[in-house]
């Protein structure tokens, strides 16, 4: 295609380096403003002027009266026009009334008509009132003066009637309308578009030509004259045309400019003729012909100025010829050049500024420069390809690529040559325009539908699979759009973006993707795995969310998929969310849910499909929320490598490619764009702009236009919907339409043809409660808005759809909520009140589209019609919006700080780089790159930094600083790290804006009252936009008087005062009348509740008790809408108000009511029957009883055990079905401080059963001791429901101060040779002992004193133990050494070490004695060293009299003796006490050596162990061989699992910071946690450059190792260098992991806490992830013993490799202080013997050591418990430590314990009340190590003839029972944890069964005894009694037994005489007859040879037993 021919004249001017002519007069902003003010001054009569007039002309003292009258006039005007249109309207109505009445005495007929014509029907009273008021006013001044004033003002008016409207764009096809992103010409001061100034242009030319005429080649004078004449023809014509009164809007310059542009263009005369005609209208006919005749002259005269006569500039710019200011620039200006010009001008301006700053004289050499030749070439190229491709990529070149699914007629139009560049406002062809005095109308006809393509075929529902058919039941086939998208949506996992017109069926596309997701989770057999996926549908409005929930739940119900709505209105509990597969939610709500990540990790992690409806909202205020959601989701996809599909649905929008790239949609697969041609019913749109600027006139004109439009449709036989924007406007509009119809006599058109059931319908309507509906129905009108009753709305919808209403006037809620189409819709007025902004705003594009989407009824109409009636200045706005020409931009920048804070609080952004990366996932980033200028990025910056990294960093750092200043995060600029703070987390969770937090920081303090709090809340940024309108003042005054209980600061005049008043009105349940206040009220109520909650959290975190209490109450006050002093029973809706008021009068508090009977209450309230109801309600108010026990641990720390007993009746209607939430805190009333706070739930179960809940926590105490603390529990939901418990310190005795630690002396390290024995020396690899070992060597190796060694973990205590052992070997070779370690794992470790070093190298016998390994007596008797656990040794040494080897023990070494304080402590205590007891009886001293970590109260332990000054070594925790650095971090969150999940990212970072390449140990509390933590760490690694950085081994080798691993998760984690270690692993797997870790092949090991004790694997860094574990007994999470935490930390730092160790401890934030204290100062050890005293007494009684009560007392004095009782009496509930008190306390204790034992049949007390006699049961209990309660149960439940089943029931509770049965059935257990549990069960079961057997034998019951024997056999053989005994053979399972059954003796020689099939063992014996080959022949198909050999050996053993 050849380029259009250009005249040479035009072509010669494409030198773009256009200079600005500085001589011209620059229009700057100020002059414009002045000019505009001048115009306004001329602008007729306004209300302000009237007010001004009266204030000027009256005396001071008359003014108030006048002001009052003026107010009255406004009041009347308000009643006439109503408040929905804003104050301006009311004022201009006031002016109208004033003008109407100022010279009248009363209202005549004429006035009434004038008002009625202007405003429609009006209340007469208002008109009379205003008339009277005007009369009184005029009387004050005198009529003549007023008359003169009004005349002068009105005369002004007429001249200038429409001066204001020249600012609007006149639509023409090719005037250069400014680009949407260009700055408007009047908005940049110096950057004036010269093109608009025709005058100066001409002057330039003419003037400069004269200047040049003295040259040789200058034009001759006549020629110049002629040219001037030509150019002035244009000017004259234009002026003449304008004088005739055409085109009032334009000035001569503008018009000349436009015409010149047209004449100079390349069109032919014919084309021009048409265009000019359209442009100038019929009046300009002569002018057109004249201009066209002289066209070339005119153009030439202006353009072809000879080269050298062009203007020269000498203003310090470079002297280079410049083209005329004007000319070719307009004609064919490619987009590109226009952009260049703009940039060029900008840059030049900058340069000029820079010049001025620099050296004024310099010429500007480096000015921006374009090469004209290049540009000309480029332009030709551009014309050739007919493509717009600006260099700047402002509009991406969408057209280059043809995407398969994009049907975009606009883009295609752009490609064709007919498209003319300059113009941006591209209106479709066939457009009709009408322009008259009253309004301008643009009408766009409906599109032709898109022709069906040949590949397109509709998808029939019958072709889908079963699921599809079920869901789309009742539909025949999918529509066109759905069919085109079908393949991609239904059969792939691609992300999709679908842009299609409203009403095109996008919802079903969403349904297709939902079905695809469901099909992926379909098991064979048609079961859907519902727990594996969640689908989230994000809809922009609550109304829409509700509609979608209904639609999807109906459709998906047959599949059993639960769909729930999750919005501000519809909260779901956690359980409900878990049971739901699909959630429909709003962007904000989903943002909040995912922000809490922690709370709902489970939720957001299994989202598999995210559907975003109406994505084009990105450029509205709520856009940023969508951006942060998508960015979060995309990052989650990348970090967790999980598949989350995103489906974006949107209306048609121009830059769909940007949105596609933002949603990560592949444009060739997942992008579908359907333009208007795909609407199910094509839409014709018309836009009407009413021209007048007078507000009242506007309203009147709009009514007028609206009526015309309605009438036109009605005449054509269509129904119409008229949309207005306020509830009461519906009635007004309907009334005024009816009024107009009456006046014009056209009412008959509106009346309905009465069908058969019309009468029926009429009756229904007359029954309606709504007066207006009844009144207007007969005229064929209806109204509909959200304020009507549900049934009335349904009625109206029904009538309209039946056709009994021709016109329905409604608000936009109808378009959103109900699908009710009409042929035509009319939007009347586009101003809508927005509560959030507190002002009238333009109707959003979303609403307009939704409303237009209701036009055209799919089955009946060929097309629909949408009309929008707006003011003339908004016309272009809506035109561009609806013809989609503005690319949608991002609004993310304004809420960047808030969103950044949310990500930091979530933990997904932890430093600047991550934040920069996070920004790259936003739409902001996509648009910043596409359109940098709009986001303030200069072209140069963009070229330098095309990825915008620096710019993003700048944004992030700036936001980071802001947040840091507000204390919402801690931002370390040096390292770029962000750390979240409590304040920031609170802000994120409660969705509080940054500015609000700033306000809080400034105003919030601990001393504020309720009134202050309300005023702080009302100043929050969330309410910033709410304004006070004059018309509300009166009503607000009323509300202030009637409902405000607290003073409202700010009063009615201020915005925040208004918020305060509204909030208090809401609480007081006040009624509000005016529409704007109603919507403000609900806005305030919703937000205030959230903000007060946030303040409550902040106060709680700041630990201000009074404030916290106040705020929590205020939260409830707002939730319940009851003031705190109202009666608590008001919270029940069931009680009548009269009764409640009476209770308040009589002051009947809840407590009083609880004590009264129901009849008494009835009498008191004069309402006999109400008593029962009141009584029920009183008992349903949640109440609790609290009891506390305090135990001092040290002088500064108290442990509080709180038992909370519910004291109310549960009722599901009132309390729900889960639990009642409570807050609990401990406050110090004197210092006003909270020492501890937590949140707990009272579960329904607990309330119903009345069982108490235990809460244990520690709090600090200070000396001098305070008199008391309060524990306060306050219900989170109920007013008036709280409890207080006082902790009294009167009788508290603090424990003794602890003696100092042993100092580590500065000794010379001792060489190993000091042992003096070569054998011993050879056991050590080192040459010298470490300092601690050196200091204790002498005492241990050369003396026999008892020793207590307290030293930190890792300081070589085991070697100390070996010194003591060697001493025994040297001195007492025949004696035994007993080494007691607390865990089996530790015993194993010692055995493995010592078997080699002591048994093999020294030849001493080492024996293990634990529950797993019980050697025979001989082995024990011969052993030199017995390694055992406390329980086992206790069991053995109980009967020490008759076990000689117990008496041969010379030394007892107890490792980790500080465990005395834990739950297994009593056993250690008993062992030591017994040892001391034994040595006192056998007078043979047993040396005791205790090893422990550093202790606080070592002296007490030493005294108890009988150690003097010599044997006590208690070093400080700090004398570790490797120094340790500890970091403690607190994490918020009530729930355990989410809190653990939130620790993963910090754990990952700790590894990165502290130990990037050295080994790391992570301790977690459960096996499940090892797995979850490992998987999360892998996810974080995945985002790194080197995801396998923790694997320090060749990957191939690793793969081989992984091949041998059984556990599937472990296979995965090992590949990343992460090991897992817990008891549930297979032995071999565990060994492999240990090997790998010890040899540093894997860097990270995640282990359960047992590893800390069991295996000595030190690491450089230890992370303790969470310090509580789940305790199965009490079914809740309890803290690790502090010793465990110390032990874990002790694993940090490897003595050989590290110069320091690191420990990072991640704890629940409320425990942080506690750990801070005790990790550095050692923890005192208390005794826990009390709880199990009776069992230990029983053992001594059975053994015969205790025979009387006195013995028992003595026995107790041997214990450690007795020592501590004296040292820390309060801990054990002892009041004082006088002799008598202690005696009394102990004898009570002994009495109680003995009584318990007596009840358990274990012993009896003789007549003398002193002597004690042991009984058989006591002996059984002691021998089998059972608790006395168990024996009591056996005695009571065992009966003479019990079968096995019942025995099992006695033996075990549910879980144990199931595990045993699984064991008998050899069932496959679902997870390895059960295996470990089964092992524990079986370990104990046999012991317990033997005890049962003894009990039964003692009673002499044979049958039961046999049953028990059977049970024991079942346990040992792992089979049911009735199973075949063949199962006892090794390797045999049930399925293998067939080989024996089918065997028969035929053909076997020497079959031993047995013939038949083999069923049991004896038969097998007989058949094999001892021959191995017989056996082999039977089993060779099921077993391997080596197994057969084992089998045969095994079955031979039976030979003996069977013979």
From TrEMBL:
Keywords per UniProt: ATP-binding, Cytoplasm, DNA damage, DNA repair, Helicase, Hydrolase, Isomerase, Nucleotide-binding, Nucleus, Repeat
GO biological process: DNA repair
Pfam families: ASCC3_N, DEAD, Helicase_C, Sec63, WHD_SNRNP200
GO cellular component entries: cytosol; nuclear speck
Primary location: cytoplasm
Domain (Helicase ATP-binding) ranges: 487-671, 1338-1513
Residue ranges of domain Helicase C-terminal in the record: 698-904, 1546-1753
Basic and acidic residues: bias regions: 347-360
Molecular function GO terms recorded: 3'-5' DNA helicase activity; ATP binding; hydrolase activity; nucleic acid binding
Entry keyword annotation includes Isomerase: yes
Gene3D superfamilies: 5' to 3' exonuclease, C-terminal subdomain (1.10.150.20), C2 domain (2.60.40.150), P-loop containing nucleotide triphosphate hydrolases (3.40.50.300), Sec63 N-terminal domain-like domain (1.10.3380.10), Winged helix-like DNA-binding domain superfamily/Winged helix DNA-binding domain (1.10.10.10)
Annotated region (Disordered), positions in chain: 347-367
Catalysed reactions, semicolon-separated: Couples ATP hydrolysis with the unwinding of duplex DNA by translocating in the 3'-5' direction; ATP + H2O = ADP + phosphate + H(+)
Cell compartment(s), UniProt: Cytoplasm, Cytosol; Nucleus speckle
Record-listed E.C. numbers: 5.6.2.4
Transmembrane segments: none
Protein family membership: Belongs to the helicase family.
Protein name per Swiss-Prot or TrEMBL: Activating signal cointegrator 1 complex subunit 3
Organism: Cyprinus carpio
Encoding gene, per UniProt annotation: ascc3
């Amino acid at each position: 295609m050849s380029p259009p021919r250009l005249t040479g004249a035009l072509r010669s001017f494409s030198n773009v380096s256009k200079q600005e002519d500085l001589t011209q007069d620059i229009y700057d902003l100020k002059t414009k403003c002045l000019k505009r003010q001048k115009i306004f001054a001329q602008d007729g009569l306004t209300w302000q002027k009237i007010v001004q007039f009266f204030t000027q002309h009256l005396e001071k003292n008359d003014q108030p009266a006048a002001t009052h009258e003026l107010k009255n006039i406004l009041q009347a005007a308000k009643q006439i026009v109503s408040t929905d249109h804003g104050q301006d309207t009311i004022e201009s109505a006031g002016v109208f009334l004033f003008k109407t009445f100022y010279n009248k005495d009363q209202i005549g007929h004429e006035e009434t008509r004038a008002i009625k014509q202007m405003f429609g029907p009006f209340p007469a009273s208002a008109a009379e009132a205003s008339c009277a008021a005007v009369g009184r006013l005029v009387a004050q001044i005198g009529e003549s003066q007023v008359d003169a004033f009004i005349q002068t003002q009105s005369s002004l008016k007429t001249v200038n009637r429409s001066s204001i409207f020249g600012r609007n764009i006149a639509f023409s096809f090719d005037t250069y309308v400014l680009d949407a992103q260009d700055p408007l010409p009047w908005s940049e001061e110096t950057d004036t578009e010269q093109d608009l100034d025709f005058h100066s242009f001409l002057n330039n030319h003419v003037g400069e030509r004269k200047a040049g005429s003295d040259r040789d080649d200058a034009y001759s004078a006549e020629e110049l004259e002629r040219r001037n004449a030509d150019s002035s023809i244009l000017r004259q014509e234009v002026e003449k045309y304008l004088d005739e009164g055409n085109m009032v809007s334009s000035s001569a310059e503008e018009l000349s400019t436009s015409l010149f542009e047209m004449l100079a263009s390349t069109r032919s005369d014919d084309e021009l003729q048409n265009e000019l005609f359209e442009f100038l209208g019929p009046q300009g006919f002569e002018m057109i012909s004249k201009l066209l005749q002289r066209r070339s002259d005119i153009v030439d005269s202006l353009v072809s100025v000879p080269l050298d006569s062009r203007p020269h500039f000498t203003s310090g710019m470079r002297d280079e010829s410049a083209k005329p200011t004007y000319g070719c620039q307009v004609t064919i200006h490619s987009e590109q050049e226009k952009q260049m010009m703009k940039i060029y001008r900008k840059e030049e301006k900058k340069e000029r500024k820079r010049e001025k700053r620099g050296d004024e004289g310099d010429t500007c050499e480096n000015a921006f420069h374009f090469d004209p030749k290049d540009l000309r070439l480029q332009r030709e190229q551009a014309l050739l390809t007919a493509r717009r491709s600006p260099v700047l990529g402002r509009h991406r070149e969408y057209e280059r690529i043809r995407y398969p699914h994009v049907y975009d007629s606009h883009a295609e139009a752009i490609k064709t040559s007919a498209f003319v560049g300059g113009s941006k406002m591209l209106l479709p062809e066939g457009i009709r325009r009408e322009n008259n005095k009253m309004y301008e109308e643009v009408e766009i006809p409906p599109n032709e539908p898109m022709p069906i393509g040949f590949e397109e075929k509709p998808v029939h529902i019958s072709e889908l699979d079963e699921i599809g058919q079920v869901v789309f039941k009742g539909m025949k086939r999918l529509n066109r759009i759905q069919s085109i998208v079908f393949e991609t949506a239904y059969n792939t996992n691609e992300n999709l973006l679908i842009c299609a017109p409203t009403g095109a069926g996008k919802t079903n596309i969403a349904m297709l993707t939902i079905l695809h997701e469901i099909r992926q989770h379909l098991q064979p057999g048609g079961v859907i795995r519902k727990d594996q996926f969640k689908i989230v549908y994000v809809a922009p409005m609550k109304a829409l969310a509700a509609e979608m929930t209904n639609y999807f739940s109906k459709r998906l119900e047959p599949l059993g998929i639960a769909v729930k709505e999750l919005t501000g209105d519809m909260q779901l509990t956690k359980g409900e969310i878990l049971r739901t597969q699909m959630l429909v939610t709003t962007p904000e709500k989903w943002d909040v849910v995912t922000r809490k990540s922690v709370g709902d990790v489970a939720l957001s992690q299994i989202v598999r499909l995210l559907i975003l409806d109406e994505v084009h909202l990105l450029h509205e205020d709520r856009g940023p929320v969508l951006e942060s959601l998508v960015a979060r989701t995309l990052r989650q996809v990348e970090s967790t490598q999980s598949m989350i599909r995103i489906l974006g649905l949107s209306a048609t929008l121009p830059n769909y490619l940007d949105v596609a790239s933002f949603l990560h949609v592949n444009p060739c697969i997942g992008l579908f764009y359907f333009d208007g041609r795909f609407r199910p019913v094509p839409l014709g749109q018309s836009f009407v702009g009413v021209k007048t600027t007078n507000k009242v006139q506007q309203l009147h004109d709009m009514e007028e236009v609206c009526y015309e439009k309605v009438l036109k449709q009605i005449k054509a036989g269509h129904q119409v919907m008229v949309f207005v924007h306020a509830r009461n406007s519906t009635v007004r509009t309907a009334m005024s339409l009816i009024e107009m119809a009456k006046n014009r006599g056209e009412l008959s058109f509106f009346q309905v043809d009465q069908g058969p059931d019309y009468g029926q319908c009429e009756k229904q309507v007359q029954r309606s409660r709504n007066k207006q509906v009844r009144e207007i129905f007969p005229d064929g009108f209806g109204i509909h808005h959200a304020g009507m009753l549900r049934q009335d709305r349904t009625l109206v919808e029904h009538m309209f759809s039946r056709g009994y209403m021709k016109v329905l006037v409604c608000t936009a809620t109808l378009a959103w909520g109900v699908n009710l189409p009409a042929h035509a819709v009319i939007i009347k007025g586009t101003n809508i009140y927005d509560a959030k902004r507190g002002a009238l705003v333009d109707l959003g594009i979303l609403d307009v589209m939704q409303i237009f989407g209701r036009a055209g009824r799919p089955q009946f109409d060929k097309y629909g019609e949408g009309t929008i009636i707006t003011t003339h200045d908004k016309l272009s706005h809506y035109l561009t919006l609806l013809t989609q020409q503005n690319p949608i931009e991002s609004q993310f920048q304004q809420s960047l700080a808030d969103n950044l804070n949310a990500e930091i609080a979530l933990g997904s952004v932890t430093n600047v780089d991550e934040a920069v990366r996070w920004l790259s996932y936003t739409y902001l980033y996509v648009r910043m790159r596409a359109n940098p200028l709009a986001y303030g990025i200069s072209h140069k910056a963009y070229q330098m930094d095309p990825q915008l990294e620096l710019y993003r960093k700048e944004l992030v750092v700036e936001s980071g600083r802001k947040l840091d200043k507000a204390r919402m995060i801690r931002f370390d600029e040096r390292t770029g790290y962000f750390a979240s703070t409590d304040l920031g987390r609170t802000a994120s969770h409660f969705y509080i804006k940054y500015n609000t937090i700033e306000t809080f920081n400034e105003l919030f303090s601990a001393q504020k009252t309720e009134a202050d709090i309300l005023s702080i809340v009302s100043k929050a940024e969330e309410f910033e936009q709410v304004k006070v309108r004059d018309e509300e003042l009166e009503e607000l005054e009323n509300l202030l008087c009637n409902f405000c209980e607290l003073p409202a600061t700010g009063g009615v005049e201020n915005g925040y005062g208004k918020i305060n008043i509204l909030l208090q009105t809401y609480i007081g349940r006040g009624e509000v009348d005016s529409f704007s206040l109603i919507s403000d009220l609900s806005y305030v109520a919703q937000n205030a509740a959230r903000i007060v909650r946030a303040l409550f959290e902040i106060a709680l975190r700041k630990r201000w008790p009074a404030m916290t209490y106040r705020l929590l109450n205020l939260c409830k006050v707002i939730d319940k809408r009851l003031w705190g002093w109202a009666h608590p029973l008001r919270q029940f809706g069931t009680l009548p108000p009269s009764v409640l008021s009476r209770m308040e009068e009589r002051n009947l508090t809840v407590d009083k009511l609880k004590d009264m009977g129901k009849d008494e209450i009835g009498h008191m309230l004069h309402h006999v029957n109400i008593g029962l109801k009141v009584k029920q309600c009183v008992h349903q108010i949640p109440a609790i009883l609290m009891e506390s026990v305090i135990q001092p641990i040290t002088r500064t720390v108290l442990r509080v055990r709180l038992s909370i007993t519910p004291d109310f009746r549960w009722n599901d209607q009132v309390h729900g079905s889960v639990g009642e939430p409570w807050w609990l805190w401990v406050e110090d009333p004197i210092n006003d401080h909270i020492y501890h706070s937590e949140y707990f739930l009272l579960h329904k179960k607990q309330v119903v059963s009345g069982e108490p809940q235990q809460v244990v926590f520690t709090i600090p105490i200070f000396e001098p001791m305070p008199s008391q603390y309060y524990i306060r529990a306050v219900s989170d939901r109920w007013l008036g429901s709280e409890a207080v418990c006082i902790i009294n310190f009167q009788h508290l005795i603090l424990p003794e101060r602890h003696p100092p630690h042993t100092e580590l002396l500065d000794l010379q390290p001792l060489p190993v040779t000091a042992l003096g024995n070569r054998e011993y020396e050879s056991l050590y690899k080192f040459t010298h002992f470490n300092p601690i070992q050196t200091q204790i060597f002498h005492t241990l190796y050369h003396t026999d004193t008892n020793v207590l060694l307290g030293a930190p973990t890792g300081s070589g205590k085991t070697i100390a133990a070996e010194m003591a052992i060697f001493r025994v070997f040297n001195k007492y070779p025949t004696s035994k050494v007993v080494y007691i370690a607390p865990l089996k794992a530790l015993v194993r470790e010692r055995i493995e070490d010592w078997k080699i070093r002591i048994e093999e190298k020294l030849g001493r016998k080492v024996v293990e004695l634990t529950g797993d390994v019980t050697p025979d007596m001989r082995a024990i008797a011969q052993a030199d060293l017995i390694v055992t656990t406390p329980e086992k040794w206790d069991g053995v040494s109980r009967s020490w009299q008759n076990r000689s080897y117990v008496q041969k023990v010379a030394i007892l070494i107890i490792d980790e003796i500080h465990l005395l304080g834990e739950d297994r402590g009593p056993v250690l205590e008993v062992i030591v006490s017994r040892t001391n007891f034994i040595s006192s009886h056998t007078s043979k001293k047993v040396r005791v050596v205790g090893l422990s970590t550093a202790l606080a109260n070592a002296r007490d332990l030493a005294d108890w162990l009988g150690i003097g000054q010599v044997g006590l070594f208690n070093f400080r925790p700090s004398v570790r061989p490797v120094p340790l650095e500890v970091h403690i971090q607190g994490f918020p969150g009530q729930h355990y699992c989410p809190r653990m999940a939130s620790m993963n990212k910090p754990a990952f970072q700790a590894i990165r910071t502290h130990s990037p390449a050295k080994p790391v140990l992570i301790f977690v509390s459960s096996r499940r946690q090892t797995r979850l933590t490992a998987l999360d760490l892998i996810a974080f690694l995945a985002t790194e450059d080197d995801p396998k950085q923790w694997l320090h081994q060749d990957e191939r080798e690793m793969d081989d190792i992984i091949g041998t691993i059984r556990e599937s998760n472990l296979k995965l984690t090992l590949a990343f260098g992460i090991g897992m270690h817990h008891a549930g692993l297979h032995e071999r797997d565990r060994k492999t992991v240990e090997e790998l870790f010890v040899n540093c092949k894997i860097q990270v090991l995640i282990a359960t806490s047992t590893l800390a004790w069991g295996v000595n694997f030190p690491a450089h860094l230890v992370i303790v992830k969470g310090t509580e574990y789940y305790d199965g007994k009490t079914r809740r999470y309890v803290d690790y013993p502090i010793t465990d935490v110390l032990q874990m930390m002790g694993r940090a730092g490897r003595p050989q490799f590290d110069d320091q160790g690191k420990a990072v401890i991640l704890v629940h934030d409320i425990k942080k202080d506690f750990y801070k204290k005790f990790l550095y100062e050692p923890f005192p050890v208390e005794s826990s013997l009390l709880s199990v005293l009776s069992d230990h007494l029983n053992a001594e009684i059975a053994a015969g050591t205790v025979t009387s009560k006195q013995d028992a007392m003595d026995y107790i004095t041997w214990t450690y418990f007795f020592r501590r009782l004296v040292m820390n009496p309060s801990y054990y509930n002892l009041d004082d430590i006088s002799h008598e008190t202690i005696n009394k306390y102990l004898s009570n204790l002994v009495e109680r314990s003995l009584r318990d034992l007596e009840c358990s049949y274990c012993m009896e007390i003789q007549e003398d009340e002193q002597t004690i006699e042991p009984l058989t049961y006591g002996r059984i209990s002691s021998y089998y190590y059972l608790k006395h309660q168990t024996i009591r149960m056996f005695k009571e439940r065992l009966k003479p003839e019990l079968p096995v089943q019942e025995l099992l029931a006695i033996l075990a509770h549910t879980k144990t029972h199931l595990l045993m049965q699984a064991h008998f059935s050899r069932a496959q257990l679902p997870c390895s944890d059960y295996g470990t549990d089964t092992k524990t069960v079986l370990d104990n079961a046999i012991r317990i069964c033997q005890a049962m057997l003894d009990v039964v034998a003692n009673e002499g019951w044979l049958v039961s005894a046999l049953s028990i024997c059977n049970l024991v056999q079942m346990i040992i053989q792992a089979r049911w009694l009735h199973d075949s005994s063949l199962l006892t053979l090794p390797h045999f399972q049930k399925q293998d037994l067939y080989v024996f059954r089918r065997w028969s003796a035929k053909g076997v020689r020497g079959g031993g005489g047995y013939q038949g099939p083999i069923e049991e063992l004896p038969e097998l014996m007989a058949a094999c007859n001892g021959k191995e080959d017989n056996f082999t022949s039977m089993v060779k198909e099921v077993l391997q040879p080596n197994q057969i050999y084992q089998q045969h050996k095994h079955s031979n053993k039976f030979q003996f037993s069977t013979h």
